[in-house]
Amino acid sequence: MSYRLKAITREEHLAFVTARPSVSHMQVPSWGDVKPDWQAQCLGWFDDSDRLVGAGLVLLRPLPKLKRYLAYLPEGPVIDWAAADLERWLEPMLAYLKGQGAFSVKMGPPVVARRWSAEAVKAAIADPQARKLRDVEATVQEPLAFDIADRLRRMGWQQTEPGSEDGFAAGQPRYVFQVPFAGRSLEEIQRDFNQQWRRNIKKAEKAGVKVVQGGYEDLPTFYGLYVETAERDRFIPRPLAYFQRMWTTLQAEDADRMRLYLACHEGEVLAAATMLTVGEHVWYSYGASTSRKREVQPNNAIQWRMMCDAHELGAAVYDFRGITDTLEEDNHLLGLLRFKAGTGGQAVEYLGEWDYPLNKVLHKALDLYMSRR
Hints:
One of its GO terms (biological process) is peptidoglycan biosynthetic process. Keywords: Acyltransferase, Cell shape, Cell wall biogenesis/degradation, Peptidoglycan synthesis, Transferase. Belongs to the FemABX family. It comes from Streptomyces collinus (strain DSM 40733 / Tue 365). By secondary structure, the chain is α+β, with helices and mostly antiparallel strands. About 35% of the residues lie in helices and about 25% in strands. The chain has helices at about 10-20, 30-35, 85-100, 120-125, 145-155, 185-190, 195-205, 220-235, 240-255, 300-310, 335-340, 360-370; strands at about 5, 40-45, 50-60, 70-75, 100-105, 110-115, 140, 160, 175-180, 210-215, 260-265, 270-280, 280-290, 315-320, 345-350, 355. The strands form two sheets. A nine-stranded mixed β-sheet has the order 7-6-15-9-14-13-12-11-10, with helices on both faces. Strands 1-2-3-4-5-16-8 form a seven-stranded mixed β-sheet, with helices on both faces. A hairpin with a 6-residue loop joins strand 3 (about 50-60) and strand 4 (about 70-75). Helix 7 (about 195-205) crosses helix 10 (about 300-310). The chain is globular, with a radius of gyration of 21 Å. The termini are far apart.
């Protein structure tokens, strides 16, 4: 079977995404509006019967002074990755994007390669010989993922190496932490939490921490905590306008696409977090907290409220997003991995991001520029 690829309307794209149980929040039409520095296009794959069978949001970033673009499909496209004829899905995409002036294509196949149970992660952290999660034996391996990786290499795709910055390289995280919800009650989910997590939830309740949903007008409050968090955890914060645009555009597409939660104690907001939902997949997207009053455990309280709401929405998975791949004790992100692992979920490795250089000279020049930033 051959596939034809062409631009589709946002309505067609959204209808396709909505009919699927799990699609990345970066592969919905509104995500293009969150990224105004990129030009967004909705792409559709059509079979011989002219049925829409695949879709992708591609972001085009222009090179200065040249009508040439880096084409990026974050955590996509949404195609049949298990198909035996994977080339017939990807070759029309490369041809189309080359015609649009792309000199290089980057994509992130939404394909899981390995999973580590919370117990395996805990044991790895405690093992002085273990330096990287990727070097620790996985609880579950997905053979199909390694077959897909081999096929991509044979097609000429190049895998982006895991970043040196503790698994948080430019682009999307290869390692994430997820809590499976499908077929489980909230009681069963909480039963898998470690003792510290359960104790902290009770402690927050006893202290009178209240978690409420916020709105657009509460984003500056979230942002104040976010800037404090960025300084403490050593990352560069996004501007407030980014979150305001994110709220406006995602909410316009679906009222439940983005939510804001605030953990309050005695009239003071101590923690805040954003939650994103597409189908049965729910993400904890951005989190922020103050160093004050940590003893009342607002972070555990806010996560438990978000999990409860995600469960009510019918989530099959609650996704904590990126984790560090580095297990060394002096790593400043290890505490975050411990916090997430306390929920009893799984560390998950995806296939990572892949590049296809359509123009090798320009692609190499971009690589050189990015390495010097």
